[in-house]
Amino acid sequence: MASPLPASVLDLAPVVPVVVIEDVADAVPLARALVTGGLPAIEVTLRTPAALDAIREIAAEVPEAVVGAGTVITPDQVNASVAAGARFLVSPGWTDVLLDAMRASGVPFLPGVSTTSEVVALLERGVREMKFFPAEAAGGTAYLKSLNGPLPQARFCPTGGIGPATAPDYLALPNVACVGGSWMLPADAVAARDWGRVEALAREAASLKGSRAQV
């Protein structure tokens, strides 16, 4: 039986794996490897035809996972994702229409932002938790550090171009609760179905929560 919906996706783990699944058969063993490695929140991006079926399989077979849908950009995708079992939603950006659909879905959501004005607009609408995307291209840690002064109430999950070398720098920021990334899912490991390697990389990523005090 799945655990209750999280109050906040941001507090489940220091890293949220951003997963692109081409073959539905990979969904369950991949999710199990990530969860065993200490990364329970799994964002399955809606970039492939297999994505919704992958979410459905993970939700049904890996109850200890908190599976979500990423790259959500339309209300129809919101509805289809929740129907498939997604327990949170992530978008690369947002509009009023998309935000209304995500809010009505009943599950936690992280709308994407890359500018100060977008952050302020979400705060006006009562949304405090956001995805910062594309993190590296949009200004990285320097940009987020600058945002914390005037907008300390906003909390972020930066995603886009982040790897194990840079993740600790993001996690050291007071307005960053977790980061998103795919480095624990190297293409050759997934192609070879080397779930042991994925689990080991996930465990290393999960340990990054201890890096805050060291940065």
Estimated structural class: alpha/beta
Share in helix? 25-40%
Question: Count of DSSP helices?
Answer: 9
Low-confidence stretches: 210-215
* Strand and helix order: EHEHEHEHEEHEHEHEHH
Organism: Streptomyces shaanxiensis
EC number: 4.1.2.14
InterPro entries: Aldlse_KDPG_KHG, Aldolase_TIM, KDPG/KHG_AS_1, KDPG/KHG_AS_2
Protein name: 2-dehydro-3-deoxy-phosphogluconate aldolase
What is the structure about, briefly put?
The chain is an alpha/beta fold and 215 residues long.
Written overview of the protein:
The chain has helices spanning 27-36, 51-61, 75-84, 96-104, 116-124, 140-148, 167-171, 187-191, 195-206; strands spanning 15-19, 41-45, 66-70, 89-90, 109-110, 112-113, 129-132, 155-158, 179-181. It has 215 residues and is an alpha/beta fold. The protein has a four-stranded parallel β-sheet with strand order 3-2-1-9. α1 (27-36) runs parallel beside α9. This is 2-dehydro-3-deoxy-phosphogluconate aldolase.
What descriptors fit this protein?
215 residues, alpha/beta, 37% helix, KDPG/KHG_AS_1, lyase, EC 4.1.2.14
